[in-house]
Design a protein that fits this description.
With 548 residues, this protein is of the alpha/beta class. The N and C termini lie far apart (62 Å).
Length: 548
């Protein structure tokens, strides 16, 4: 193990034991990183050394930062972190904000100073924020002032949190005020090891309890040197745009790491619905778009009213890309969408093919640097054409933060993703279904048990089960089967009440778009909920709705 730069050894102390981690592959020459490495130097500082400091880097509707301007902002925040806020290498810092230049600068500043980023989505509520704060023992948070309400509510829920510093408030103690101090424009990157943790990304988890996935300094470069280099193949004059929050690893790679790795620029939109993306592509001359299949479907009928002439590449992930969407997008735009399968545990996409070899209805082949296969329940590789559990390994892999579920995801040195796949005779991997209870709706991962727990907090709900129901627009919607307590009436008013209850407790996108009231739930003899039976009911309900 390389000597760590972390003074706070929390992350390294909570890594899974080496024998519990997957096998890591570094066969490609570009994956052989030096032992001492701070990845921010590659993403930002090296472009200044090469003479490209004036090149556009971050573009938003309100400001535009060159590489040199971003570098100075990163340095100023890093100085605030270390000189004013007492952050030491290895400390975890919670970041909370929409996609913006300030969010990106704060992200890189934490890493440059040797800290560990824990980024959270703007939609999360206090209860959801309290979990990563407590699990990762976070003492410091940087937050957009517009999102103060929910994080302030976490103070009694997360006793480790000691200080929240806001940007955009204009206050005397705001981040911007602290950044203005003289001498803060320079900051030497922390002498971190290539295997020092720099990111803990939390995922919903299939049991409703989030899992923290730990990623090293080298991992942020590895996804650029695999998918970025061999599948995406962007160039320095590309302009990236997309919808995923950079608190998601899909958004982090697609809107931050991939463009900055090649010296390109990225367009950051705080609101990026299909109706926002389409005009922004033309306005800013975007060339590469990252979004979910749902968004591509939604944009199809509106393309004629917008200028997409600058667009040359499109990437889809977050849910399976239907062949009909792939074909319709190709017929309308001439662009073959690059479909990709990734996971928070693996950091980014590990199966996906360049556009010229992409096939409708298939996710693609393993990204160079990764290996994938389809296994049976015993871990034996299955032949082509037989459905089984997807297993993958490469330069990135699962390292859960102090979590016994490590043994579920890593088996026999392979990462077992929870997806059911078939490998065809040509080596393409074709998605069949999720192997767990995760609901994927419009690109968002939603854990059914988490929604169940919120519904059960309402006085009207005696029992409930939550599953995904097929939906032509969103891929899946959240559907709740609810058994009511006596004295409550199953009507539209109660449905709206329960939906609003969920929206007010957790991120609004998790609320059940469909609620069906039942007299009882299917259970095993030992009392366990039979989710497979609920999923079958949901599929039948969706089919009946389409037929009517």
């Amino acid at each position: 193990m390389i000597r760590s730069a972390h003074v706070d050894t929390f992350a390294r102390d909570h890594l899974p034991a080496p024998q519990q981690q997957p096998e890591f592959l570094f066969d490609l020459p570009e994956l052989r990183y030096p032992q001492r490495l701070n990845c921010v130097s590659t993403f930002i500082d090296d472009w200044l050394t090469a003479g490209y400091g004036d090149r556009d880097c971050l573009i938003s509707p309100t400001e535009r930062l060159s590489y040199a301007a971003l570098a100075e902002r990163v340095n100023r925040i890093a100085n605030v972190l270390t000189r004013d806020l007492g952050m030491v290498p290895g400390n975890r810092v919670l970041l909370r904000g929409p996609n913006s230049p300030m969010m990106v600068a704060a992200y890189f500043a934490v890493i440059k100073a040797g800290g560990i980023v824990v980024a959270t989505m703007p939609l999360l509520r206090a209860k959801e924020l309290a979990f990563p704060l407590t699990k990762a023992e976070i003492r410091l948070a940087l937050c957009d002032a517009r999102l103060a309400d929910e994080i302030e509510k976490t103070r009694p829920l997360a006793p480790t949190l000691q200080r929240i510093v806001y940007w955009g408030s204009g206050a005397a103690d705001s981040l911007e005020t602290l950044m203005r101090k003289p001498g803060y424009e320079r900051f030497a990157p922390c002498d971190t090891a290539s295997d020092d943790v720099c990111l803990i990304a939390f995922t919903s988890g299939t049991t409703g309890v989030p899992k923290g996935t730990m990623h090293f300094q080298r991992d942020l470069l590895a996804i650029c040197d695999t998918f970025g280099k061999h599948v995406l193949r962007a160039v320095h004059n590309d302009r990236f745009i997309g919808s995923p929050p950079i608190a998601f690893t899909f958004g982090l790679g697609g809107l931050v790491l991939f463009p900055l790795h090649v010296g390109a620029s990225t367009i950051l939109l705080e609101k990026a619905t299909p109706d926002d993306l389409l005009p922004a592509i033309g306005k800013f001359g975007a060339t590469i778009c990252f979004t979910a299949p749902t968004a591509y479907r939604a944009m199809l009928g509106k393309l004629a009213a917008h200028d997409l002439s600058s667009l040359r590449k499109c990437v889809s992930a977050g849910e399976t890309l239907p062949a009909a969407t792939f074909n319709a997008w190709l017929a309308t735009t001439g662009i073959r969408i690059i479909d990709g399968l990734g996971s928070t545990e693996m950091l980014h996409i590990f199966i996906g093919s360049p556009e010229e070899t992409a096939r409708a209805g298939a996710t693609g082949k393993p990204v160079p640097g990764y290996e994938a296969r389809v296994n049976d329940e015993a871990g034996r590789e299955l032949p082509a054409g037989v459905a089984g559990r997807l297993a993958v390994r490469g330069p990135t892999g699962c390292r859960y933060l102090g979590d016994q579920r490590q043994a579920d995801y890593v088996q026999d040195a392979w990462n077992v993703t929870g997806d059911t796949y078939v490998r065809d005779a040509d080596g393409y991997f074709c998605y069949q279904a999720r192997s767990d209870d995760m609901i994927i709706s419009a690109g968002y991962n939603i854990a059914g048990p988490e929604v169940e727990a919120v519904l059960l907090e309402h006085a009207a709900v005696a029992e409930c089960g939550v599953v995904g129901q097929p939906d032509p627009e969103r891929g899946q919607i959240v559907k709740a089967y609810v058994v009511l307590r006596q004295g409550f009436t199953a009507d539209a008013a109660l449905t709206r009440t329960l939906q609003e209850h969920v929206k007010s407790t957790v991120a609004p996108y998790k609320y059940p778009r469909a609620i069906e009231y039942v007299n009882s739930l299917p259970r095993t003899e030992t009392g366990k909920l039979q989710r497979f039976a609920l999923r079958r009911m949901a599929v039948e309900s969706a089919a009946s709705k389409l037929a009517s």
